[in-house]
Amino acid sequence: MRTGFREGDIFIIPMNDGRSAVCQVVCALKGRFKKAFSFGVIRLTSDETDLSDGDFLQYRFGNRQSSVIFTSPEKLQNGTWRVVGNIPLTPEKEERQVFQCAGHLYRGDEYIRNLTPDEYASFETLGVAGYELVQMHLIKMEP
User: Fold this and answer.
1) Distance from the first to the final alpha carbon of the chain
2) pLDDT at 52
3) Strands, E, within the chain: which ranges?
4) What pLDDT, on the 0 to 100 scale, is given for residue 76?
5) H/E element holding 79?
6) Which residues lie closer than 8 Å to 84 by C-beta, 6 or more apart?
7) Confidence category of residue 1, pLDDT binned at 50, 70, 90
8) Exposed, middle or buried, 114 (CB in 10 Å: 0-12/13-18/19+)?
9) d(CA 142, CA 105)
10) pLDDT band (50, 70, 90) for residue 4
11) 56 has pLDDT over 80
12) How many angstroms from the chain centroid is the CA of residue 40?
């Protein structure tokens, strides 16, 4: 059983409604944020054979529109979410590695700088979703 994962890994999340989400790891965080990782959803499907690349699906959470979800890596590490391949991140997807946490800007594990409060909404926020919230985000996504 594979316990490691890296940026670009393609993995499958079984959805509560019987479909599957084909996802890609954006940030495989190892430093101070090692209890989280981020990913995007390439497609929702009932057929797991199409593992080709694609743009990330969008979802709405409150007033925010996003295409990246942060969650715990436990289900990737224990094999519940199966890693089925790796596709290198495109430059556009690499841009999604930039996020803010508590007013500080990061690119993956690398600290960049402090943000002004006016800048907070310009960046993805590291907010770790529990697995049930991940399922809720998946259901809200539209192809």
Assistant:
1) 31
2) 86
3) 9-14, 20-27, 37-45, 59-61, 64-66, 69-71, 82-86, 98-101, 104-107, 110-114, 124-125, 128-129
4) 93
5) none
6) 10, 11, 12, 48, 51
7) very low
8) exposed
9) 29
10) confident
11) yes
12) 4
Q: What is the 3-state secondary structure (H, E, C) of 88-116?
A: CCCHHHHHHHEEEECCEEEECCEEEEECC
Phi, psi for residue 126 in degrees, rounded to 5: -70, 100
* Token digits of residue 25: 């790891």
Q: Cα(133)–Cα(71) distance, rounded to whole angstroms?
A: 9
The predicted model gives 98-108 an average pLDDT of 93
Tokens of 131: 């697995």
User: How many CB atoms are closer than 10 A to CB 49?
Assistant: 7
As given in the structure block, the two tokens for residue 90 are 């495109």
Listed residue (12, 38, 35, 143) closest to 94, CA to CA: 38
Task: State how far the Cα of 123 lies from the Cα of 96, in Å rounded to an integer.
Answer: 9
Q: What is the pTM of this model?
A: 0.92
Structure tokens, 71: 């969650």
Beta bridge partners of 14: 20
Quick one: CA dihedral 70, 36, 11, 139, positive or negative? negative
